[in-house]
Amino acid sequence: MLRELLAPVAEAATAYAQKAGMQINWSDPCATMSKLLIVSPTPKAFDFPIDTWRAQFRYAGPFCGGDGREPIAFP
Question: Is the pLDDT of residue 27 over 70?
């Protein structure tokens, strides 16, 4: 069902890649990920414990200082 929902996006991406002369292996789910850096704005404590992140993956979040937010009780 998800593949059917995303079909128009996949078609547009494939057409763009061909027009731009990109050689993409669409059967590889990581083919379009950056080889240099992947930045996550999610704090590591909120992410699922995964051992297999690529070497270029970095946690950098959160990207806001919290100014203007009301404090809430959260352990």
Answer: yes
